[in-house]
Amino acid sequence: MAESLPPTRSRIPGSGLAKGLAVTLRTMTKRAHTAQYPDAQPELPPRSRGVIGLFEENCTVCMLCARECPDWCIYIDSHKETVPPAAPGGRERSRNVLDRFAIDFALCMYCGICIEVCPFDALFWSPEFEYAETDIHELTHERDKLREWMWTVPAPPALDPSAEEPKELAAARKTADKLAAEQAAGEQAARADEPAAGAEPTAPQEGDA
């Protein structure tokens, strides 16, 4: 004998419509908030991925960002220059000089790999997002534009009070302290070589040449 199914609860006709109208009425009573863009700029999170800024002084043309880019949208040109020796008798050395650094934002997928792999902190995320163009070819921005976006990069968050000092600051402070100590030692040696104030010169002894 088949088991009898429990009786289904009768549904009031129009209950779904009433629930929908209740949601609509609750929403209508709330005041709408409209951001008046572009007069009012949106408040973006500090780590927003807008565009990529270039700090040209840190770039050594290692080509690591261009090689790791999955879209191949980074174009770098450079040449070599000979640097004279820093001290007499030293050897000349060659260094790469950056000629072109461009990013095609029509191809970029904002993965951030180029920023992560840069060993010299030459690339940074900028929250700037207003760079639309009417021509897709104009979305390839050269290093001058990337340098302008560098100044829109927000400052890094403050370190934890118990965190270690960054290595760059520690090295710079150590060098400054060393130079200050050498300068102080040189001034002290110069004062020691000077004759005492008010001392009379000694008379030449008999038999001195």
- Strand runs, count: 5
Structural class by SSE content? alpha+beta
Give helix % range.
25-40%
Distance between the termini: 143 Å
Which whole number gives the mean pLDDT? 84
What is the helix/strand order?
HEHEEHEEHH
Q: Please tell me how large the radius of gyration is.
A: 35 Å
The stretches of 5 or more residues where confidence is low (pLDDT under 50) are none
Largest sheet: 3 strands, antiparallel
Work out the strand percent: 15-25%
SS element count, helices: 5
**Net shape:** elongated
List the strand order in the largest sheet: 2-3-5
Provide an overview of this structure.
By secondary structure, the protein is of the alpha+beta class. Helices cover 28% and strands 15% of the residues. It is built from five helices and five strands. The longest helix is centred in the last third of the chain and has 27 residues, at 167-193. The radius of gyration is 35 Å and the shape is elongated. The model has no long low-confidence stretch (mean pLDDT 84).
Spell out the key features of this protein.
209 residues; 3-stranded antiparallel β-sheet; 5 helices; 15% strand; elongated
Blueprint of the fold:
Layout: H1 15-28, E1 51-54, H2 64-68, E2 74-83, E3 93-104, H3 113-117, E4 123-126, E5 140-141, H4 143-150, H5 167-193
Quick description:
The chain is of the alpha+beta class and 209 residues long. It has helices at residues 15-28, 64-68, 113-117, 143-150, 167-193, and strands spanning 51-54, 74-83, 93-104, 123-126, 140-141.
